[in-house]
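Q: Joint fold for the lines below.
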Amino acid sequence: MSLHGGIPRAIAADVKRGERLEYWTLGWMVSVVLVMWLVMGSSQAMKAAVIEDLLSLVPAIVFLLSVHWERRRPNRRFPFGYRRANSLAFLVAATALLSVGGFLAYESVTTLIRQEHPTVGGITLFGHTIWLGWLMIAALAYSVVPPIILGHMKQPVAERICDKVLHTDALMQKADWQTGLAGIAGIIGIGLGWWWADATAALFISLSIVKDAIGALEKAVSELLDGTPRALDSNRLSDDAERLIAALKARFENADVRLRETGRYIAAEVDCAPPKDIPTANELMGDDLAWRLASLSFRPEPADAGP
Amino acid sequence: MGSMWRNQGDGTAFAGMMRHRLNLLFLLPALAGCDALPRDASGATERIERSGEMRIAVLPGTPDAAPALALLHAYAAQHDARLAMVAVHGEHAPHWLEDGKVDAIVGHFAKASPWQAHISLSKPVARAEPKNSKQPVLRIARRNGENAFILATDRAVAETAE
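A: Joint structure:
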């Protein structure tokens, strides 16, 4: 690992685990898309679910790309390395999540306004014509299982490696299984003759997805604008950033302290002259999170130093 | 549904989720067992039973309508109803079907018909699906959402194909 490139040893195993989980996600979700595509028939709701599942691959793909770039060493053209690829990936993942929520909301609202009565007819298999709804329910039930398991496994890894892309992907998985359950409820609703059930269930789910996506977008934009590091699950300042600010202020006589985040790494700037004894990352962040402090800089001259 | 789970704590949310899934697991076999699904969204079958007539429109220029009419007649007979022919032509026919003024249309439609999103087209009656998806063949058009009627006619059409 160099100053601006590579993965710190402390989190290397967890990052590898995150990558493995994302490869599993791609494999399982592609199988889900195939199964859904086979049974979607002319159902608009199922088509929307397939499109939603395809979009849900985006966070997994951008996570893998961003980790690949994070490992690259800095060079003359990119002297600060490629760690900000993670911030960019976070913006892309959050946008994908918003697209899924927005698309689902649009589909639901237009279905309700136009009062479209979804048609789910029969399908002939091995000489027997059965209601296609049963196959759709089976496909949707299958589509629910991988996201529940994978999302549950990703969440703690995302917290340990402070990765907002992986966290957003876990949110996307939550969107996937919620949409799947809403879809099952919707198909049963269609079967019971309640044409509005499918769209209404999807509308409730879409509002929850949009809320998560807007939260993620706010954090992604603040990260790209060099905002103080935010928590994984909300737009408040992260606990380790708050602790670091307090530790630096206590150590340097209440000097102004500015933190920003590049991907998962924090850069700190203290508005005072460089001290003789510069504290180590372990002293400031603790042993577990020392890897997160990538740089600590001081001003060549204090702000109030005049001629 | 989703927002309800979101507002709970993590553990409670997971427990709630599992409870919903278990409920669904118990619900599905119950629904499958009693053969209750699907039903018609606008109650076409109930109306046919109540009124004793099934309103059919045969599009002009459909000389081979007999097999489609035969299976519709059989469906009507199962529900103690008779076929009532409705005279309608041109684009009025699919609009009337959308509005529920007729229960089914018998006519020639292509698989890739521009009407396919607005009405529910059956597979070809008494013949295989042509390779050219734009070739009109004899089909039964049903009102979208009348899924019990649609499934019943799909089954009857599948039997004519055999």
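Q: Anything notable?
A: Chain A touches chain B through 37 residues (CB under 8 Å). The CA atoms of residues 167 and 233 of chain A lie 8 Å apart.
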